[in-house]
C-alpha cells in the first residue's frame, strides 16, 4: 500500500516536471519521533517527526521535503497499518549549523483504542560513505526510526520525552566525543537509555537491523584521549551520555539509541534516535566544561549556579544551555534563565544559571539542564580553513522536593473505638491539586536520618502508613481504623506529602511537573505511661541438653497497685517459633518492689534450641481479670559456628527481640582451658546492620581488663564461647536503659572435622494425574502440606560422619535462588531423633527445601541436597455457556477453582479469527459481550489462554491452552 502510494506521488511529480532525483535524495542525517496527547476526552495525539537533513550533499532534497508519511500499527496485531501524511512546519527549514537543517513535521491522530502502538517513519537515501553501516553503498539505504507508544486512558495527558539537544556536533580524531540528547519528560516519568542498531524499514512499519559495527571498531584499535587502549564507545543508561573516546578515522558514522520512558516501574514507551557523527581531522583541541554538582532544593528556592568553560588554545567560546526548565510549553512558570557575559569573545567564559523554583516544580525525577560550549577560530589562527568547531558538554541535575510539613502535634481524644489521638499541623505550604498528606505511625520514639536528597520515610525505620488526607487538611483522628490503639504505648507520628503524577487532572495540563514527595516532618512522640509491660531480658544462665536455664524479665506497667493483676508467660521452641505453650501464671498486685517481673525457666535443652517468649498482661476491670494486650515476642540469643577456617574459629550470633541490638558493643567470652568453667572476656565487637553478628577468634585476647589469656588455635581442638549482647529500646520510659543478655555456651572445633555430615532430603511428590481427575480437590482447603523426610549418612567420601546428631534444621525458600530461611528445628529427646517434618498451612505446594544436622557442640552441617516442588496445574474450561440472564451458566469461567493460577491472559475469537474479547481475570468471567459491552451472537467461539501457574521459579513458564466454546442465547 505504501509503495503504491509513493509510485503515484512520483508519477504525479514527474507529470509536473519536478526534479525527481533531487526530491528523493533526502540525505537524512538524524531524527526521532515524539508524541503527546492533546485531548482529555479522546485518544488524540500530536505526532511529530524531527529530522536533520544534510544540505552539503542534498540541499534541494531537504528544501523539497514538504511532507512525510507516518506508519502507525498496533504492535500486537498483524492488521494493516495506518499511513498518514504530515506537513512540514517551517519553510524553508532552519539551518542549525554544520551543513544541517532541522525539518519538523506534525500531524494529529486519534487512536482507535488503547494498546501498544508503533509509530514509524522511513525515507530513501541516507548519506553516502557512512563507514559503520551497510551494505554499501549507503546512499541506497533508507532512513528509518520508530517510537513505541503505550496508549492508556489512565495515563492522562501523557507525552513522550522530547530530545532538546540537536544531534549534530563534530567529533575530532583522537579527541573524546560526547553527545547527550538532553531528554526531558514533562510528566516526570523516569528515563533510561540504551544503544540500538540503526535500521531500515520492513513490513507493516517494523524495522530491520542494518549491518552495523560500533564506531570504535572502525580502523585501527586506537586509544582514548588519555592514552588507554583500545578506544571506547558507550552510553550511560542513567544520564544518557553517549561517549566515544576517541575516534581514529575521519568520516561519517551512524549510531542509534533508545530513550525508555518508565512510570512506577512499568515501561510505557520508547523513542529511537538515529544520528550521525561527523569525524574530522581537526587542528585544534576541544574546549572543556567544569563539572557541576547535583543539586537538591526545597520548592521555592532560588538557584544561582555559575557555569565555567575554558579553551587551552585560546579559542573564543560560545556557551549555551538547553533543558525543559527554559520552555513554557514543558514547564510551569517561572522559567529558568541562562546569561553569559562576553559571549563569543573570551577563551574562558562564565555563565550564570538562575531559576526561581516553586511548588509547581516539585518532581520525583531530577531536572537535567544541559550546558554546551563550542569553540571558534580566532582571527590570527594559522590554517583557518582546517579549523573545525568542537564542543564539550555537561549536565546539571536538579531535584526539587516538597517542603517539610510543620507544626505536627497530637493529643488524646475521646472516641468510641477506645484509645485515639487527634493530630493537628500547620496548613501546608504547597497547595497542589491532588497532593495528599500521608500520616505515618510507629510504636516508640526514635530519630530517622535526615537528608535533603532523601525524601519520604526511609525504608526500615519502622513507620507504617496510617492514612492519607487531602493536602488542604490540618487535622486527623487516629483511632486505628475504628479498632482503637493500644493503651499505654508511646506512639511516634510523622507526615509526608505525596504529589500526584501529571495528567491525573486532565483539565490542568502542565499544572504539576511530575509526582515526588516532601521531606518527612519532624517527629511528634506521645511519651505515655507504660501501661503494658515489655520484655527486657531473655538470657541463658545454663547450657545443657536437659537442665538448661533461661531468665526472662519484663517491666512493671504504670498502673495503680493494690488491684489484682496477672502475667501469663508463654514459650515456643526456636527463635521464630509460634507454637506457644503457657509456662507460668504470676499473680500480682503490682506493689512496688515485688519480685513479680522475673521468671526463671528451667529444664530446657539450651544446647540445641533457642527459645521464643511472649507475655500477656491481665488487669482488673469490673471485678474480673481481662487481657489488656500481649507484649512483642523476644527470643534467646543463639550462638552458632560459622564457616571453618584454618587456625581460626568463626562464631555468629543472633536474637529476634523487640529492642535494638545494633549500633552497640557486644561482648565475646572464651573458656579458659586452665580453669574449666571460667570464661574470659576476649573481645568487644561493634555491631551494625542486621540482627546476625559475627566474630573471628585467632586466639588473641583483645580485652585486657580481666586479664589477658591468649591461646594458639589448633585444628581439631575444641574451644567454648558465649556472647553477651547489649541493646536498648531507645525509650527513656523503659528501665533499665541498657539491656544485657547471654547466649548459650557453644563448644566448637577450629576445623570442620567435627561438623556433622549433610543429610539426604526427599520430598513427597504430587500425583497430578489423580488430582486432575478431581478438579475440585484444591477448593475450600484451609491450607496445604509438604511432607519432608531425610536420612543421615554414616560416611561421606570415605570419611565417617559424626554420629552424635542432636537436631535437624529445616530451611525453606519460596522460590529457587532465594536465600532459604529456617522454619523448624526437629528434635524429640530422649526418643529417637525424628527424620520427618510436615510443613503445614501453605497457600501453595511450590517451594524449595534443604535440611542440616546439628551435633552435640551445636555445630551445623552443610546443607543437604536442595529439593524443589511445583504445583499441579489445574485449569479446566467448559465448552458451553448461556449468557441469557437466567443466573445459570451465565459466564464462561473455569470449572471448580483455578488452583495455583498466578496470572493469565485470555483471548476469544469469532469464526473468522477476529478477537472479540480479552481479559486478565484469573476467573475469566466472560459474560458473552465484547470488551466494549456489546452482546455477541450465539455461535462457536475459539479461545487461547496463556496461564502462569505458581511455581518454585520466580518467573514461571507459561502454559498455553487452546479450545472452543459454544455460546448459546
UniProtKB/TrEMBL annotation:
<protein>
    <submittedName>
        <fullName>Gliding motility-associated-like protein</fullName>
    </submittedName>
</protein>
<dbReference type="InterPro" id="IPR013783">
    <property type="entry name" value="Ig-like_fold"/>
</dbReference>
<dbReference type="Pfam" id="PF13585">
    <property type="entry name" value="CHU_C"/>
</dbReference>
<dbReference type="InterPro" id="IPR026341">
    <property type="entry name" value="T9SS_type_B"/>
</dbReference>
<feature type="signal peptide">
    <location>
        <begin position="1"/>
        <end position="25"/>
    </location>
</feature>
<keyword id="KW-0732">Signal</keyword>
